[in-house]
Design brief:
18 helices; binds pyridoxal-5'-phosphate; 4-stranded antiparallel sheet
């Protein structure tokens, strides 16, 4: 702010502090001072404008109350409102807590707008084959549950979940029902764990590349994120990172990993658990894809191999049934389940009972198992179609990927130095979407990688989507070797 341009009038009738506050608001509105920038200190304003310290303090209090600035110990008065935000009568941006400003990913907003656009074939979001959802059976069981258990459906439910549901999950996992917490999706589990275990500044070790939802959650609680490439599973590197950063926890998706599709071996799992035990490191095993294996039996869960009670396991029905059910669970030692249950209660009281009752019946009747078999073979088929089309319609050096043994994703490397964000803009123009690699790294790597989800779309559309994708990528090949691409 140019202080010499601030003129205050003693004869104007408006108190001096209001005039000073208005001058700063106008400067913020004009964009002369940006969010994060410091306003002049009280001492400097007193000296330069010849006003009292009380006038300056009151002006800054006024700006703070209206959400234009925040006061930070050791840094002074910092602008936090955006210029555009000040057009409205109240600067909401300035009221938003620092934690909530730590993450804002435009890619996710873009994704949700794409998913409702019928002209775009989307390989972006990781969703189940909803065309194969057992709707008829689901409706029948739901109707029967309403008929027989209406009271249970509509009354307040227990935060930890209905015993009926927890028993069904506990049987499937070979643990005691007291170790199970029902969740409104496994995403909620990551959030609860982050809020329960992480203080701002704590280090968190996590897969890089890895699940973007987890990256955002840990960023939001102020963790220092340390990436480890679990797909390559270099255990010496992992130990170095543990020693160097003393992380509070390790978050990983060891089976049919998102986004790479890789699975770590039984041997590596044992090694991981041994390191975790040696350094007293809790492990979050996020396991949404385990059931979606194509003709192989995945290695045992970290939870089942753990003898030290260090693992918190997360499961979900989002990738086998549908994300819209918002139903998942957590399995962990009772002591930590109790803490997490308290935090969940503060957040959403409890997970919808109807969903728990219906899904528990699917589990116990064997319908779920049958449905999972159908999904396994269908996802395997969809992967084959996608890989075949990628190979058929583009030269191998344009986009490369390896087949996976389960899950939902192909992780692809782009040739010719093509930037995935640029490729996404081009792809959207021809009606196809994917996720650029960058969003899977906490530190902005992944410029030449992208993730394709093969499960969500029936084969004829996969064929058309891949045709559009390779058309978009081929158009970018001519910029090969150039540092920057034209803005598309
Ligand atoms: C590794 C991982 N964890 C959690 C989730 C979120 O699942 P849910 O729908 O159960 O919240 C996803 C979804 O893509 C995921 O890939």
């Amino acid at each position: 702010v140019n202080i010499s341009q601030i003129t205050l009038s003693h004869i104007q009738g408006t108190p001096l502090y209001k005039q000073l506050a208005a001058a700063f608001m106008a400067a913020i509105e004009r964009g002369e001072v940006q969010p994060g920038e410091q306003l002049p200190s009280e001492r400097v304003l007193v000296q330069r404008l010849g006003i009292s310290r009380t006038t300056v303090v009151t002006a800054y209090q006024e700006l703070e109350a209206q959400g234009f600035v925040c006061r930070q110990v050791g840094r002074g008065t910092i602008v936090c409102a955006q210029a555009r935000d000040t057009q409205t009568s109240f600067a909401w941006q300035g009221k938003v807590a620092r934690g909530a400003l730590r993450t804002s990913d435009p890619t996710l907003r873009l994704l949700s707008s794409i998913s409702s656009d019928p002209t775009v074939i989307s390989f972006a979001a990781g969703i189940a084959a909803l065309d194969l959802f057992p709707a008829q059976l689901f409706q029948e069981i739901t109707a029967r549950t309403w008929r027989d258990q209406a009271k249970l459906i509509i009354e307040l439910g227990p935060t930890e979940g209905l015993l009926f549901f927890r028993q069904a999950i506990a049987t499937m996992m070979g643990v005691h029902p007291s170790q199970i917490l029902a969740l409104s999706g496994s995403q909620q589990g990551i959030d609860l764990i982050a809020r329960c275990l992480i203080d701002p500044g704590d280090s968190v070790l996590l897969d890089a590349p890895g699940y973007l939802g987890a990256i955002q959650i840990f960023q939001a609680v102020g963790a220092h994120l340390v990436g480890w490439d679990s797909a390559h599973a270099d255990m010496n590197e992992l130990e170095d990172l543990i020693v160097r950063y003393r992380p509070k926890l390790l978050y990983t998706t060891p089976t049919f990993h998102n986004p790479t599709g890789r699975t770590i071996s039984r041997q590596t799992r044992l090694h991981l658990l041994e390191l975790a035990a040696r350094y007293h490191l809790p492990i979050i095993e996020d396991d949404p894809y385990r059931d979606l294996a194509f003709n192989i039996k995945p290695p045992p869960t970290l939870l089942s191999l753990d003898t030290q009670r260090l693992v918190i396991y997360l499961g979900t029905f989002s990738k086998t049934l549908a994300s819209g059910l918002r139903l998942g669970w957590l399995a962990a030692p009772e002591a930590i389940v109790n803490h997490l249950t308290l935090i969940k209660g503060r957040s959403d009281l409890f997970t919808t009972s109807l969903q728990q009752l219906v899904v528990a019946q699917l589990l116990m009747s064997g319908i779920y198992k049958q449905h999972v078999h159908t999904m396994q073979s269908e996802y395997a088929k969809r992967q084959t179609v996608m890989l075949r089309e990628l190979r058929r319609s583009s030269p191998s050096d344009l986009i490369r990927s390896c087949p996976v043994q389960g899950g939902l994703y192909l992780w692809c490397q782009l040739g010719y130095g093509i930037d995935a964000q640029v490729a996404l803009q081009k792809a959207l123009q021809v009606g196809v979407a994917f996720l650029p690699g960058e969003v899977f790294y906490p530190d902005g790597r992944g410029h030449h990688e992208l993730r394709l989800c093969f499960s969500a779309i029936p084969p004829p559309q996969i064929i058309e989507g891949v045709r559009r994708l390779t058309q978009a990528l081929s158009g970018l090949r001519s910029y090969a070797g150039q540092e920057r691409y034209p803005i598309l």
